[in-house]
Specification:
The complex is a heterodimer of chains A (287) and B (221). By secondary structure, chain A is an alpha/beta fold. Chain A contains ten helices and 15 strands. In chain A, strands 6-7-8-3-9-10 form a six-stranded mixed β-sheet, sandwiched between helices. A five-stranded antiparallel β-sheet of chain A has the order 14-11-13-12-15, sandwiched between helices. In chain A, strands 2-1-4-5 form a four-stranded antiparallel β-sheet, covered by helices on one side. In chain A, strand 1 and strand 2 (15-23) form a beta hairpin. In chain B, 89% of the residues lie in helices and 0% in strands. By secondary structure, chain B is mainly α. Classes of the chains: A alpha/beta (287), B mainly alpha (221). At the A-B interface, helix 2 of A face helix 1 and helix 4 of B.
Amino acid sequence: MLLKLENVEKTYRDFTLRCSMEVAEGSITGLIGANGAGKSTTFKALLGLIRTDGGNMEILGKRQGDFTAKDREDIGVVLAESTFCGTLTVKDAAAVMENMYRKFNRKAFLDKCDGFGLPLEKQIKDFSTGMKAKFKLLCAMGHEARLLVLDEPTVGLDNVVRSEMLDEMRRYMETDGRAILISSHISSDLEGLCDDLYFIKNGEILFHEDTDVILSDYAVLKVSRQQYGDLDKRYVSYRKEEPFGYKLLTKEKQFYLDNYPSLAVEKGNIDDVMLMMVKGEKVEGLK
Amino acid sequence: MKGLLVKDLKIIMQNKTMLAVLVIIEAVFFVMQEADGMGFVIAYMMMGCGMMALSTVTMDEHDKSMGFLMTMPVSRRDYALEKYVLTFLCMLAGGLAAFLPYGLLLSGEAGRMFTAVMGIVPVMVVIQMVALPAQMKFGGEKGRIVLACIFAAVMLVMIAVEKIGKQYGGQPWLRDLVKEVSDGIRKTGTAGAVGIAAAVCAVCIWISYLASRRIMEKKEF
């Protein structure tokens, strides 16, 4: 495991994070959740930017307490709200990183920035949102880190550039021994990129599943009230009331396809799962 | 720490207007007051350049880049230490830039130059040593307010001391105390005075650095 969080706790006045998760070598793990669910707090906790109230964290095989500043050369980070000081230029940032990271290749970094259309001598504060997002991601990937921790890296990017940046991440993973932990609001990014997903709500991990399983086995059933009454609900995990009856989330799509051919069964995707978990009511165990 | 220094020097160099203002004001005072303005110009340049170093803390806070910096291979202690190194480099650069023209002008008056420098450098160092932890603790706007409050408090204490001195100046015990202290300083000679000033500065720097280090270690981003 390149990253392991065990019962990590952080309490604020009106919010408590209780989080356990793992990121395996060679995998891209997504963290999804609504605004304020605890994604950024989780990232800050694992990066040591906030003090935790309990739990254990291991990064690249080291306990967080033993993880030194030098060890951070092996981590590349995108934070949702911060990057280099806005008065610096891309060239300035390259000069800073050259003096911070032993594996940073200044020429390759500047070539890449240039290739992605970033002006090398313009102040970062004058960049568009999309340009800033590209710059942050290229900085994180510029020093051969083993683990990338990316908090909302594709925010503000148009579809074309987003696709290019996702391809960059895939290329990054072609080298052995690496892993990425990424959060995003854009589920299509995560569906096409992540090997597994954690879903966080109100500071707690509600759900962890392989992306392939979500796409192949999960489904949303649309049932009338009468159909709901007759339904075998053993495999229904969430229920959401709708004008026509209920929407139900299940992990056993095939069971309902085989046994209830007349039901409307929609193939599951990350948006559906997230929406059902946020807006729906947990019905696990109901018969 | 080298990376942090590079970053801050780049930030300072971006602030060309402030650098130009510092140089122009120095030139104006140099031309207008010649040797009489030496103490002021040295103090002004040291303070101005020290403040530019201080402003890099504000910039880090303002753009929320401090959190990002802490994900890079630098420790919180490195960050605090770098701000002190930067401040002294900037003050040294400012002091030298102010001193060199006077050095040429008063090349035969080493004593006069020495007195001017010795009178002002410790004061500037102490001011910066108060300002740095305040800026790290409270950030940009609040930091400036806290700093203004600290200096206002120092002024009040000085006024109070002056008033007490006037009120009790006639008291024999106070006269004796003042005499003893001034005699003591006189006896130590120039080297002693420099030593005392250096020791006071060193203690201030150490206390200030420890405070800044602690502030950074406790900070959450």
